[in-house]
Design goal:
Elements lengths: L6 E6 L6 E6 L5 E6 H5 L8 H23 L6 E11 L2 E12 L5 H14 L1 H5 L5 E6 L1
Parallel strand pairs: 5-6
Antiparallel strand pairs: 1-2, 2-3, 4-5
Helix pairs in contact: 2-3
InterPro entries: KH_dom-like_a/b, OsmC/Ohr_fam, OsmC/Ohrsf, OsmC_Ohr_Peroxiredoxin, Peroxiredoxin_OsmC
Pfam families: OsmC (PF02566)
GO molecular function, one term: peroxidase activity
Length: about 140
């Protein structure tokens, strides 16, 4: 079953002096202020496209890994995932996923192997293949 999720952005002014909002339309979960300064300098309580990408990537990866662990007979008690998206104007230059898992009965080696496979199969990882994605695994 295919689904479509929608977000929108509103911007006023020039790139450097202007500002705007990003809104999660499908869920209605929130509206977030954005600006160039928040993107390229200090966040100052605002978000950026890179932070939104990081949130999507961390969430998708955790879901993918959780499913793969369960299918392997080792459901995770918990997974803590962070995605860090590097931005050097005008490009996103890299992404680092960091995952720590509490997976009873699974060796650290098998967890790392499954974590690597999940990185390759994660739909957001696939969508972001133009950027180097590094994985750091902690057990």
């Amino acid at each position: 079953m295919a689904t479509t999720r929608t977000a929108s952005a509103h911007w006023e002014g020039t790139l450097f002096e202007g500002s705007g909002t990003a809104r999660l339309e499908t869920s209605g979960a929130g509206q977030f202020d954005v600006s160039w300064a928040a993107r390229a300098e200090q966040a100052g309580g605002k978000t950026s496209p890179e932070e939104l990408i990081a949130a999507a990537h961390a969430t998708c990866y955790a879901m993918q890994l959780s499913n793969m662990l369960a299918q392997a007979g080792h459901p995770a008690e918990s997974l803590d995932t962070t995605a860090s998206v590097d931005f050097a104007p005008p490009s996103i230059t890299g992404i680092t996923l960091t995952v720590k898992g509490n997976v009873p009965g699974m060796s650290a080696e098998d967890f790392k192997k499954t974590a690597e496979e999940a990185k390759e199969q994660c739909p957001v990882s696939k969508a972001l293949q133009a950027v180097p994605i590094k994985l750091e695994v902690q057990s």
